[in-house]
């Protein structure tokens, strides 16, 4: 069931569209993430849902009802922002209890019991008496999360809640957020510019660019089947090629990039047309060079290695081929300036 919906939403600032025409629907209990580069309109979208902004056109609906004019405190949303926004003069307990000021504790519990329950949910038992400045950044964000969840909101809105934390804390907190979200089954709209984080935590992801939604899908679909050049290169490393179709019989496509010939999956394009496709770095594998008298096999690139990054389980190679940058991710640890790499036709995705 659709819980939260944006329908043709537009929002302008001084005549410039921060959101051009955004339509999204988030199902009940879903963990839905907006990801995109700085300035693409993620925060504006979240603020529209929170009721901190109004759309210039289009509608925001909760459970099918237009919420135009409904103030934030009546929207049944819990919000956590990037900066902790805890009240410094209140203890941790008081900060969490503040979340209950409008609605009180859920039926059958006292305020004190509810605060204890929330502190335990975010792993801060025993820390209720502390002041916010006696907590680490990650702990402060847990308090902010507990405060937002206190009144059992219908929708949880999280705007880059982890961006001020270091990498390890970020990973820990994102696991907790995900586990809590699952346990409570609360519809969640999460904003991040970090595509890896978006893939890791979400049921579905909307990739945004310049005030528009480029693609909505599961993390797997976004990663494996990008539909636009922007999504292909924003989400994860990717190798994007522009190719001239040589022949396109039903079962496969023959295409040329620079001087190399490629065998690709079938595509709806005629000989002479230009198509674009991408191949993920981990789908390029290091191959033995062909013997000098044999013809070069298809889908084979001889690349110049510029930089190699050892990542533990794999090595990432930044290479050049025919004037292009090629990224290869391989379990091998190659030690060569020049390598042959190849890919299976099925590794190529058209967009
Ligand atoms: P970031 O990741 O940097 O927070 P974002 O994707 O959340 O970016 P928004 O904050 O939604 O992007 O901003 C979208 C666009 O709208 C930007 O160009 C921004 O400069 C502009 N904008 C946002 N808020 C205002 C405002 N109050 N007044 C004028 N312009 C604004």
From TrEMBL:
UniProt-recorded Gene Ontology molecular function terms: ATP binding
Keyword Transport: yes
Superkingdom per UniProt: Archaea
Keyword Lipid metabolism included in the entry's annotation: no
UniProt keyword terms in alphabetical order: ATP-binding, Molybdenum, Nucleotide-binding, Transport
Domain ABC transporter: 4-235
Main subcellular location: membrane
Top-level enzyme category: translocase
EC number(s) from the headed UniProt entry: 7.3.2.6
Annotated catalysed reactions: tungstate(in) + ATP + H2O = tungstate(out) + ADP + phosphate + H(+)
One Pfam family cited in the UniProt record for this chain: ABC_tran
Similarity comment: family membership: Belongs to the ABC transporter superfamily. Sulfate/tungstate importer (TC 3.A.1.6) family.
Assembly: The complex is composed of two ATP-binding proteins (WtpC), two transmembrane proteins (WtpB) and a solute-binding protein (WtpA).
PANTHER family: SPERMIDINE/PUTRESCINE IMPORT ATP-BINDING PROTEIN POTA, SPERMIDINE_PUTRESCINE IMPORT ATP-BINDING PROTEIN POTA
Protein name: Molybdate/tungstate import ATP-binding protein WtpC
Species, as recorded: Halogeometricum salsisoli
Lineage, top ranks: Archaea, Methanobacteriati, Methanobacteriota, Stenosarchaea group, Halobacteria
């Amino acid at each position: 069931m659709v819980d939260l919906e944006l329908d043709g939403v537009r929002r302008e600032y001084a005549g410039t569209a921060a959101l051009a025409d955004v339509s999204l629907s988030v199902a009940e209990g879903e963990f839905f993430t907006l990801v995109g580069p700085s300035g693409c309109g993620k925060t504006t979208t979240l603020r529209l849902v929170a009721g901190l902004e109004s759309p210039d056109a289009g509608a925001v609906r909760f459970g099918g009802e237009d919420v135009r004019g409904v103030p934030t405190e009546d929207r049944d949303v819990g919000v956590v922002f990037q900066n902790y926004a805890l009240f410094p003069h209140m203890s941790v307990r008081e900060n969490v209890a503040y979340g209950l000021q409008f609605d009180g504790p859920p039926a059958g519990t006292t305020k004190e019991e509810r605060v204890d329950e929330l502190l335990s949910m975010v792993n801060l038992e025993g820390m209720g008496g502390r002041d916010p400045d006696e907590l680490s950044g990650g702990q402060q964000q847990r308090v902010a999360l507990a405060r937002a969840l206190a009144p059992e909101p219908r929708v949880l809105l999280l705007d880059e809640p982890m961006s001020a934390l270091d990498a390890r804390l970020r990973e820990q907190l994102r696991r907790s957020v995900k586990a809590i979200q699952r346990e409570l089954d609360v519809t969640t709209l999460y904003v991040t510019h970090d595509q890896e984080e978006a893939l890791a935590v979400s049921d579905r992801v909307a990739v945004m660019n310049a005030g528009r939604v480029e693609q909505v899908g599961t993390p797997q679909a976004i990663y494996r089947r990008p539909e636009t050049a922007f999504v292909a290169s924003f989400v994860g490393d990717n190798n994007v090629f522009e190719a001239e179709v040589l022949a396109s019989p039903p079962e496969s496509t023959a295409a040329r990039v620079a001087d190399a010939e490629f065998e690709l999956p079938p595509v709806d394009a005629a000989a002479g047309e230009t198509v674009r496709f991408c191949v993920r770095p981990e789908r390029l594998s290091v191959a033995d060079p062909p013997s000098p008298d044999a013809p070069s096999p298809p889908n084979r690139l001889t690349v110049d290695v510029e930089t190699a990054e050892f990542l533990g389980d794999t090595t990432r190679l930044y290479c050049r081929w025919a004037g292009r940058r090629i990224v290869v991710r391989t379990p091998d640890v190659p030690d060569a300036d020049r390598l042959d790499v190849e890919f299976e036709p099925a590794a190529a995705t058209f967009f």
